[in-house]
What we know:
It is a single chain. The chain is about 25% helix and about 10% strand. Strand 2, helix 2 and strand 3 form a beta-alpha-beta unit. By secondary structure, the protein is α/β, with parallel strands linked by helices. The chain contains 6 helices and 10 strands. Strands 1-3-2-4-5-6 form a 6-stranded mixed beta sheet, sandwiched between helices. The chain has one domain (about 1-339).
Amino acid sequence: MQRFIVLLFVISFFGNCKSAQKTQTVTTSNSLEVPDYSNINNWAAHPWKYDPSDSLSKALRKNYHPDSTVDIFFLHPTSYLDKSMPFGYNAPVNDAVLNKKTDGTSILYQASIFNEAGRVFAPRYRQANYYAYFPTDTAAALAAFNTAYEDLRAAFEYYLQHYNNGRPIVIASHSQGSTHAKRLIKEFFDGKPLQSQLVAAYLVGMPIEPDYFTNIPACTSPSQTGCVCSWRTFKEGHTDTFIQKEKFTAIVTNPLTWDASKPEVSRKENKGSVLLKFNKLPPCVASAQVHDGVLWTVKPHFFGNIFYTNPNYHIADYNLYYLSVRQNVQQRINAFLKK
C-alpha cells in the first residue's frame, strides 16, 4: 500500500501544474558539452546493452518475437523534477540518481512497449527541469529547452550515421520528450528525404497543433503510416484551464480504436494496461473518448482507485493503453513493410 500511495503522489504531482515561485537564482547548463553518444552510457536504452526497455510483462513472454528490421527512437519525459533545481535549469546526463529514476519509470513503463516492434534507442539528454514549463525567467527556460533539444538532435544524428543503415523509423515520446520530438520530426522528416523512412510517430502527452507539420498528417486509421498519433488523457468530463486557453484543437488519436471514425470506445475494448505492477496486464482499465483536443476516459478501474482523485492522467498516457499501443505499432510496421 505504501508503494501505491507513492505512485498516487507522483501522478498527482504531474497533474497539478502550477506556476513555480522563484526561490533562488539558477543557471542553465548551456556551457556544458553535448554528450558523447558513442559512449553507450549516454543512452538510457540501446540495442547493444540490456536495459529496462528490454523488460517484458509476464503475460507477454510466451509469444515474444522481437524484430530488428525497424528502429524505435524514444524520447523520454522529464525526470528532473526538483523545484530547487540543484543542477540549474538543465540536468546532467551522468547523475546516477536521476538516471535510475528515468530508467525505472519511463524506460521501463513506456519504452518497453516497443521492444518487440524493433530496436529501441533512447538517448539521455540534458533535460530541462519540470518547472521550466512554468518559468519566472522565460529566457532561461527557453535556453534550457534549446539545450535539451541540442542533445537530442546530436543523438539522432549519431544514430543516423552509425546505426540506422536505412531502416524504417518509429519516433515515440512522452511529455518533455514530445516537446522535442515534434521539433525533431519537423527538422529531419517533414518534407525531407528521411520522411520516406517514417513508419509513424507517437507524440504523447503534449499538444500537437494540427498544422504543425506541412507534409506529415495526423493518423486517422490503424494501419496508416507516415503519420502522427497524439493524445493527452483526462478523466471524462474534465478539461484543465490550460487546455481551455489553447488557440487550436490539438491532434487526438484514440489509442484503442486508432480510427478517426470511431472516436469513442468503452473500457471493455482495452485488452491490457500496465499499472504499478509491471508484470500484470489487467484488462478493461480505461476507456477512450476523443473530446475537444484531449482524450477522456472513465475513471480507471483498478484496486485502490478510490484513493485517486486527480482527473489529470498525464503520467499514465501510455500505461493505460499499453497493450493497444504495443499491438498498433506492430500493425503500422507490417503495413509499412508491405509497401
